[in-house]
Design brief:
- The chain contains three helices and ten strands, in the order ββαβαβββαββββ.
- Helices cover 17% and strands 31% of the residues.
- It has a single domain, classed as Sandwich (Jelly Rolls), CATH 2.60.120.
- It has a seven-stranded antiparallel beta sheet with strand order 1-2-8-5-10-4-3. A three-stranded antiparallel beta sheet has the order 7-6-9, with no helix packed on it.
- It starts with 5 loop residues before the first strand and ends with a strand.
- It is of the alpha+beta class and 226 residues long.
- A hairpin with a 4-residue loop joins β1 and β2 (17-23).
């Protein structure tokens, strides 16, 4: 018997941005896990610590109806919601090889109307998604207007405190305060504004297996709502 889908709306931090958590997100999550296996993964950009590959278009035939409901009812999208890209993602970069951008929280977009989604496809709890406040600016999100200020103050922070040592972020750091944590659950998705400062939360000792059937497999999607 299929489990019943559950939707939770959560306010993140002092800025109160809305994140939507959906349990039992996909109708058949095992299908997408199996489809992820055997594909070729490669690094894409500086922010994600592992390999990625494109998700098949029919994934959105499965999850599109619930996404449409969320964008209409929670994010007040009255126009068109489009998928910009969707990627299988497997966190596999060794801690000692993490680049600077992978050792601090990041944002995906600064322009309004952009949203990000993480869909957890590992049955084992290999870490969720954490949200952060930048201590020296107080910013929890980085808009177009805040972008230059944020980057300048972050550079000042590195000059004053040094760059963080190679490690996955877990909890508070000297430069960032964790404001919220969406914990891992198999077939859970979290959808949030792409301007929010966030990062994967991989605890010490979590295996970084590059096999999608064993490691921290997620689907990351990036959407534009008008």
């Amino acid at each position: 018997m299929a489990r019943q889908r559950r939707i939770e709306i959560r306010e993140i931090g002092a800025e109160g941005a809305l994140a939507v958590i959906v349990d039992e997100f996909a109708t058949d999550p095992g299908r997408w896990r199996n489809e992820a296996s055997g594909r070729e993964y490669r690094s894409m950009g500086d922010f994600y610590p592992g390999g990625r590959t494109a998700v098949p278009a029919d994934y959105f035939s499965d999850v599109g109806p619930v996404l449409g409901e969320i964008f209409r009812n929670v994010f007040a999208c009255t126009g068109r919601m489009s998928i910009q890209r969707a990627l299988y993602s497997i966190a596999s970069t060794p801690r000692e090889e993490l680049g600077l951008a992978q050792r601090i929280p990041h944002f995906d977009e600064t322009a309004p109307g952009h949203y990000a989604m993480v869909h957890y496809l590992s049955p084992e709890d290999l870490g969720g998604t954490a949200f952060y406040r930048h201590r020296s600016t107080g910013f929890e999100s980085v808009s177009v207007e805040r972008h230059r200020t944020y980057l300048g103050r972050l550079n000042d922070d590195f000059q004053a405190h040094g760059e963080p040592a190679p490690a996955y972020i877990c909890g508070d750091t000297p430069l960032f305060e964790q404001t919220a944590l969406v914990e891992h659950r198999y077939n859970r998705a979290v959808i949030y504004p792409a301007s929010l400062l966030h990062c994967s939360q991989l605890r010490q000792g979590v295996a970084l297996d590059p096999d999608p059937l064993c490691g921290r497999l997620t689907i990351a999607a990036f959407m534009l709502a008008r």
